[in-house]
Amino acid sequence: MGTLENNTPTVAVVVATYNGATYLRAQLESIVQQTYKPSQIIIVDDASVDGTITIAHAFAAAHSGVMVVQNETRLGYIKNFEKGMLLANASYVALSDQDDIWVPNKLEVLIHAIGDQMLAYSDSELIDADGQLLNQKMSSIKNQFAYHTPIMYTIGAWAPGHAMLFKKELIEKAAPFPALVTHDFWLGFVATCYSRVVYVNEPLVHYRQHTQNAIGADTTKNKTVSLTLAQKKQKARARMELLYNKVKEAGHQHAEVFEKINNSYANFSLINNYNRAKLFFDYRNLILAYKKKSALLKVLFALKMFFKID
Fold this sequence. Notes:
It is globular and about 65 Å long. Strands 1, 2, 3, 4, 5, 6, 7, 8 and 9 form a nine-stranded mixed sheet that branches. The protein is built from twelve helices and nine strands. The protein is an alpha/beta fold. The protein folds into two domains: 11-208, Spore Coat Polysaccharide Biosynthesis Protein SpsA, Chain A (Alpha-Beta Complex); 229-304, no CATH class.
């Protein structure tokens, strides 16, 4: 791997693996073939039992600047990515799944797009297990755009980690990563607490869809353990408290809004139900910006919040 000039921003790529032998070689090759060469590639394997670690070590032997770390016991994908991010030694960090293919100029485009903001991400093109294009983009499933306030992350977002590039300092602000939300949601949310999230309307990743995806583009699949209604409510309340505390810690101008939303999640009193529905109505265009909903459906969603919490 080529070295960078001293005045050139460095990029570390964190690759999280788990039983990824089928597709890992192709992804690693797409990383080293980037037009903007990463200074460091960190492969963190989450106790794979297939040939993943053999492939990782062979790759490290063939390329300079590659670190391979193997967990003795499974951490799960959130903590596995966090472990890799904390090992990064570069100005910028990009996350890589084990089964995608990066477009050759992915890092180059994102490094020029990010400017003085903390995080940038791009659109992605979906491919099948054999690498064939599915003629569908991530942006065709849900809206992708620039995020300029944490309110846009209140109940969800559509800025995936595999398409991100962010400043190393974001990791320091985001760690430790909570288990309540995914690592990429948390990175994007924290970025909006201190900065803006830049969007590049260009597919820079071929995002592979197959039966073993930890997180895929098919949002209709139930990938989580079934929870009781009481457990869902408890999780929603804990999640909103988590978001509020981070916005407050960052001193963001919308901390008061999050405080009101968080308070409305406490119980189903009439006043809380009214306040929650009103807040979702007032900020519906920001909260639901990532969803492909009509103006009417956004209003109906806000009204629904009188009876439930998301």
